[in-house]
Structure formats: structure tokens, C-alpha cells
Write a structure and sequence with these properties.
The complex is a heterotetramer of chains A (138), B (330), C (348) and D (287). Chain B is of the alpha/beta class and 330 residues long. Chain B is built from ten helices and eight strands. Chain B has two domains: 262 residues, no CATH class; 41 residues. Chain D has 287 residues and is α/β, with parallel strands linked by helices. Chain D has seven helices and 15 strands. The chains are: A alpha/beta (138), B alpha/beta (330), C alpha+beta (348), D alpha/beta (287).
Amino acid sequence: MASNELVFLFLCRALKRKRLLQTIKQEFPSIRVIEVPCIGRFNPILAFKMITAGAKGVLLLGCDPGDCHYREGNLISERRILYAKETLTAFGIHGSRIQAIWYNPGKDKQILHDIKLFLSEIARLPMLTLKPTQKKEG
Amino acid sequence: MINWSKITEATRHYLKSIFQPGDVILSYTESNTPGIMTPLVIREAEAIDKIILNPLCTQNLSVYLSEFFQQDIQSGNPAAGKWVVTVKPCDARSVIQMISDEQIAKDNLEMVVFDCDGTVTTKSLKNLLGGEIRSVKFEDHQAKGETLANKEVTADLVGSYQTKCSDSAICSLPDMHDYSFISESNRFVFHGSEKENALIQDTLSREDCFQRVSEELSKCIRCNACRNVCPACFCSDRCVMDKPKLAIPYITKEITLDQIFQYHLIRFYHVAPNCTACGECERACPQGISLSIFYRYLHRLNKQLFGAESGSSDSDKQKLLSYRFGEDLV
Amino acid sequence: MDTNRIYKKDMNQVFSALKKLGMAVIGQGFDEKQRLVFKEVNSFQELALQEITPLQPVKSFLFPPTETMFSYQKTEKGTRLTPEQEAGASKKKILFGLRPCDVHAIEYIQKFYNGNFPDQPISHYIENTIVVGIACATPSNACFCTTMGISPVSSSGADIFLTPTDDFFLIEFLTEKGKSIQSAFAASLKASEANDGNWKQKIEQSTINSLLEKIDVEAIKGKVNQAYDKPFWKKYSDVCIACGGCTFDCPTCTCFDVRDVMESKSDGYRYRAWDSCSFASFTLHASGHNPRNSKLERLRQRIMHKYHYTVANMQTWSCTGCGRCIRVCPVGINTRSILKDIKEALHE
Amino acid sequence: MSNQPNHYLPSFGKILETKQENSLIKSFLVSVPDTMQNTPVLPGQFFQLSLLGYGEVPISLSEYNPEKKTYLFCIANTGAITSKIHQLSVGEEIGIRGPYGNGFPIAALKGKNIIVVAGGIGLVPLRSIIHYSLTNPGYFTHLEILFGTKSTSDFIYKEEIKQWRLKPDTTVKVTIDKAEKAWNGNVGFVTSFLQENCADHSEILFSLDPSFENTVILVVGPPAMYKNVFRALEKIEFPDKKVYLSLENHMKCGIGKCGHCNCGEKYVCLDGPIFSWLEMKSLPKEY
């Protein structure tokens, strides 16, 4: 799996959806899941590092604003993603490479659909030629 | 047109009237490098006469305020008196934004805003006067210089200012309810150019914009001048990018295109909510990278999203804190 | 010393001859945004020798801002290191049209990087570089080469030396390296004429008159450290913003950082990149203790290193008075005024 | 010219044994790489140890055994790289470059009384000089080891200290900063041994060689400790030419090029890390 097809998914552990995690891992081999204790732990600097290193995109999966286990984890990340997307746009990089999916209970199928939608959307984006060509494969 | 010697005289007069022992004044004076002024830290009243204000006063003095306030807090004995800073209208907005970011305390700060009709950078002054100069004087809106071969050269200053001065979206005065304003007409006269220069993010396609940004940033040598000169980057001496202790760092020290992108992405992401487009990063860049491409886009963003430019009033709370119910999701 | 003339109109033949020898010619010219830089040039017209010397020094071609030292692969049989000598490096380079201050800077860098543990990658770059010096007729208002004992027409350290006039250069081939490419110039060399000799004095006189001042630094040579505790430093450190501009644009600044990058479980590389003593993390210990904690100490270190420590260790200033630190400073700190303050402080 | 060796390329040694000395320090017995088989190593010199992918750290050598061809490095877990080195296990490889630095002035110590003042981790580099006296019996007239740590749990080299006590003309004095229940030895800073009023004060200084003619003191410890050492030695007017200290500056290249360890006119990696107290007086307080 060359690094330029990778998508990173920050999954909020407070979601407690073990089965959803399994299906994501099976259905989307190009997604690397990073479990974080709270979606507020997401730091756009990590997303920038992934994108400049050649990753295709970054996804966030947490609860809908209002029913966050820690009350404001998703509120903070929602604002961070706004500025992260706009900063990427300011640099001529597609802001849509970073996307948050806010989950409300009982909508697992909806989540998988949203992820598929995101993957198809960023599949069309050109590969960022920032890192000098991979000296060695893998 | 501004009469700079009058403005200098009025500022000195006002500062002498409010100076108390223990106060520290931040202003400008001549450096012995022709074509650039140097910030001046005044701790005794006699030094006030050294203050000189002219179109070369480009530095944004608010960048020193956060550092001096930090020193006060760390040293445990806050400055006996007040911090007094003389700023141009566009830099005043940086001071206002720092107050609303709670980086500096409003009560022991006195901001003195002097009127300005555009500043000239060392580079543009050199182009104006056609080469290296031995000295320069400013009289009724002309720059009178003396070349290295002792020849007199003069040039009109109109329309030769920095990007930020000729951009109408940025040359504006914050609300000044309890700050003093020094000008001949005692009200702010807008001096920037009316036309709004288009942003490349709007005019170019995404790929061309990325291409243009890559060309610009490929010249970067990561000397940190843009970060250390930025008043919105108030944690520049303990920055996440200097964290040598992380085994896998957020950013490496390589001066290669991907790490340069990472550097500027991190920087502009952090200052996005409180950048007041003071233009200092573009002026201080030794490589001449037009960083206004980024800060003008993010500056406009705040106006579009939250209806208020950063640095317009010292009471509106930080926008980054968190999403507020009712806003639409991104 | 046989001096010849070479007319500017014939220079393009010389350039194409050099290209045939597989050489990259690097000189000062304007880039696509009209910024004065050192870049690879293909024709004589691309050069802008009448301008002052560019802000970013030519050292970036000898001591690259970032350089991979080696990449590694961990295999079961052990670790394999492949030192990375950039392809471009082995290609011979000609630095065309360097002022005496830049030529002396290269001499200093070569001397510094040799010593008892020679820096093999950099000496390899310098070995593959031919320096074509030129008499400086267009100084900047920040220049102070005469203060540092360097004449604007000094040819020492250059392999070939040019003296510019209106339509021709006087050219001298000074070293074996310079003579090794004399063949490329041979076809266009013309005999020099009687009064060619005084072109150099004319240029030297006019350039020295253009310099703003000359400070007698010999009076403080070897004693600069006595100004260590003087109060004037605070005047500068209050205003300094501790960016790396003055050190990155200085042709004789040689400090670098060494770090690793892990690309995968088994592969990665070690690189070195420019570093600056004005950065806080430059001397930070793992324990958190920082020997130079304040901006004052770091600003003073730059001055002490250039005007005292290298005088003590290498019996030479490590400053050639090119004025770049003065031109680049965003807050107008002038190194010459620091030198004058040191002189004044030592005479009390 | 360009066919010189590239001093930045590390060679590799295998980790033969590891031992957790205390909560902070772990010692690694490493095989000498074949490119360094017959390179002499002076006590007090250091090596640049590489953990590829993370970086390099300067580590003073504790023991060099030419017969068994092994180096002994005792590494404190204080930084990003050292914490990763601590996770290495026996059999793995570690990059080694060196030896660098001047080391202790062995010639000047011949036939002298040697006092070793070690503050906590300072005993790690000083062990190289103690090992030298064990492998060259009679080289020093008398060896006195003064070792101080914060608490009993910080002790290192417990077995070695027992053997050092048995060696002829060798005395060992140990102290901890604060009293502890199970401890009935000395309490106080290691510098208290250098004061006459201390009950268990140094025999060399106050009985064997009170005129200090034939005595040299070697001191290694955290920078804060050096101030107390200087104060104690000034009080008894011990000559500053005969006190040697090790400076632990931030280092990167180890060969005097990268500029990080520059302190005054000296480069700690080239002219040090061992400096005499006299030299230190001329250095600015930047270590």
C-alpha cells in the first residue's frame, strides 16, 4: 500500500462501537484507524503532517455536537477542522481532504455510507507532489 | 497628506505629558543602517526626544509586548509603571487582538496610535531612489536620499507602499474608545487604495494556486523571521516546532518543500483566528516570499465567518475556542 | 602575473565552452520575481554583476541548507548505510563573479571544515568548485569589508580574478584549478594594454569612498571578550527578535543540526540542516537546562564567536564584512554599531 | 582530498549484556565494532551512540576491556533518544562513533593521590578512571572515591563499590542527600567530604597530603554541584590547576563542527569534556 492512498481515521474511543470499528477495518483497507480517548484530542498539525507526507485524506469520527461524552470534545474539533480546512485551501490544497463525520446513535450504515462518499470524493484529487519521490518503495 | 515632523512632535509632547517614572515606552528611532528604523525601548524621560516617526516606521512594536509581559509575570515583579507603545493604526489592531487573546493586560498598557498614510519598506525605498543610499530624509511627502556617490535623489512616496498599505481591507482603525490617537485632524482618514486586490485563491484554479504557493515557498530557508516577528505568534520562544524532545517530531528541521509546507501550514493554522494582517511577516522575510497570499485569505475568512475582522475590538472573545450551537457544520 | 583582457561580447563563447566541460556556472542574477539571487546561469546576459552581492550567500552551494548524510536499511544481516553524496555535488561548479568578501568567506569555510576531523562531504563540494572572483565596484550601504582588513579588489583566495571595466574584464588565472579551465577562455583572450594596470586602483578608490565607515577593529582584536559583561548588550537584545536571519544569510556561519527521520520500521535517513545560535533550542540540554537561556546571551554569542573565539582558535576573524547581517535584520540592528560599542566599552 | 573517511558514519556494535543500575540508569555491555578494534580509548572520553531513526547521544565510556573487546556504557533515561535506547535488548545493534574528547590527563596523574568526586550520574564517566587504576595497580599512590546520590534507591555499581573497597590504597566514602531509616552511613552532599569539619572527611586532603602537593581531584556531576565544589575547594585553597571537571554540553557532531557545544573559546567535544578548574574560570558561565 503506497503511502499516497492512505486515509487516516481518528476514531473517538468514547463512541464504544467495537463492531463498527471491525467493519470499517474490513471494508476499507486503505484506512488506518487511530483511536483517540476523545475526539477533542485531534490536532490538525498531525493532519497536516500526514497530508504533506503524502496521505490522501484525514477523517474524524465522533458523536454529534450536543451528545459528546466529554461535552465539548467535538465542539473544539469542529472549530479546529474549520480553520484546518481553510488553511489548506489558502495553500491551494483541497480543504475537503479533512472531513469530520458526526455520528448519531443507530446510524452505523449511514457512517459507512459517509466514509464511502468521502473516499470516492478524495479519490479524484491529484496526488500532492511535496515529498521528494520515494527513494525506496513502501 | 501627513506631516511626519508634526506627528513626531505631537507624539513626543503627549508622551512627555503622560510619562511616570517606572513606565517603559516602546517607539521608533533611527538605526545606523540607512533606510530602516529600529525599535526603541525608553526607560527615562530624556530619551523621549530620540523618538522619530516617518514612513520607514514599518516594525509592528506589539510583538515585544507579549514578551515583556511574560518577563514581568515570570520575574514576579511586574513593571513598576505602565507599558506605553506607539503604533500605527494597522499595528494598533494587533495590540487590540492581543488584549482580547488575554496575552497582555489592558490596565497597565497605554496605546498611543499615531496617524499614518502608508509606510515604505527598505526594499521599496531602495527601488524608489534607484539604488544604495547613504542617508534619507522625508519632507512633504517626498523621500530625499543621498546615494553612495553623494548624489541627491528624490522620489514621491505616493502609491509606493507595502502590500498591506495598498490593500483597502487592511488599512483600518480599531475602535479606540479608551486609547489616544495623535493626528493633525484628530480623526482617522483612510489612506489605503480603494480597490480590493483579488486573492489568488479566488482567481486561480486549485492546482495553479498550489503551483504558485509551491514556487513561493520553495525559496524559504526556515529562518523563523516570519514567526518571531508575528504578534499573533506569541509563543514563538516555546513553539511546538522547536520541540527537540519528541522522538517523532511534528516537523523536522529539514529545509525541504514538504517540511516548509508543514512549517507554514502550522503557523498560519495557529494564527488564522487572530492574525490582524499587519504585513510584518512578508516584510521581514529575507527571501522576499509574498506571505500576504496567506494572511489576506485568512483575514478575510474571519470577516466572512464571524462578521468581524480580528483586532477590531478588544472585547470580542477568541473565535477558536469552540463551535457554537446554531452555526452550520463544516 | 600575466593579465589578459576578455571582452564581454565574447563571454557567451566562454560559457558554452564551460558547459561542454560539464560545468555548472553559478552567478548572481534575477529570478522570476526579480529577486537578486545566486543561481545557475546559461549565458552571460543572465548575470547581473552591476548589482550588489545577493542577500542569500553562495554558501548554500557548498554547505547546503539541508543534506542527507546517509540513509540506512535494517536487514536481518545487519544495518546497511549508504552515504548520500548528491549527484550534483560531484558535478564541477564554477562560482562566477564572487566579491572578495564572499571569496574570503569560502576560504574561511574551507579552513573551518578541515581541521582535525575534516568534514568530508563539504570538502568534497569545495574541491569540486572553481571560484572566479571579481573586483567589487558596487558595494551596499551595509558593507564593511575594509574594516575586516579585506580590500574590495583583493584577489587572494580566488582561482581566477576578473577586474570589470565598461566593455571588457581584465582576467588573471591564479591557481592550478583556475588554469585547468583556461582552455575555455583561451579563444577569447586578448592582450592587455599599457594602462590596464590602474583599473584596479580606480575601482578600489571609488568603492572605498562609497563605504559608509571603517572601524579600527585591530584595536579590539583578541580583547573582545572583555566586553562580555558590559551593559550595552541589553540595548540590542531588547529589540532583537532572535530569528535566524543574520546567521542563515551569513556566508561564514557554519553551524548545523543533525537529526534522524524514520521512514519505516526498517528504513530511514540521517540529515543535517542549517541551525542558528539565536534559536532557543540550540543549546537546550535534555534535562531542560539551557546554558544560553536569554536572547542577550544568544545575540552576544554570535558576536563573540565571530570576533573573538575564531580569532583565538584560528587566528582570523570569521567575518568578512559583507554586510548581509545588517541588510537582513528586520529590526535594524547594525553589527557595525555593536563593534563600535565594544570599542567604546573597552576604552573606558 | 575527498577520499578521507566520513566521520559522520557510525559503525555498529552488538549489545552483549544489559543491567538496570537504578530507576534512571541502565548499563549496556557492547561489542567493539571491528573498525575500532585497536583504537585506544582514554578514560573520560565519550562516544556518539546512534539509534537509527531516532538520533545520536554523547555518552561517556565507563569501561573499555581490550581483551574481551567490549565497551561498557551506562545511559540515563533523560531524553527522547535515551529513552528509546533503554528499550533495546541483548543482541540488538547500536551505532557507535568515536572515541571523542580529550579524556582525563593520564600522564599528569601518574604517582599522584587521586580524589574522585562523583555526583549521582557523575560516577559513570569517573568509573573509567577507577577501572584504569584497577588495571594499572600502583599507577596512583592512593585513590579515594567520594560518591554522593540523592537517595539509596539512586545507588549504582553496588557490587563494584564493594570490590573497590577491598583494593589496596583505595578508600570509598558514600553519602546520600537526605537521611533515610535503613541508612546509617553519611548524610549530606558529596562536597561535604571536602570540608575539614566533616566527620568522615577526605583522608588525602586532611591527613595523607595536607599540603596538596601530590593530589589531583577529578569531579563529575550535575552543573549545580560544581558551584559547591568550587566553594569548598576555595575555602581550603586547593590549587585550581589540579582539579579536573567534565562539562556535559548539548552535542550533535562530536567533532567540533556543528557549534552546539561551543562554550567561550572552547569546543566541549574537542577541547573537553574534561577541563581544569583553571580553564573553567576563563570560560563564560555558559555550560
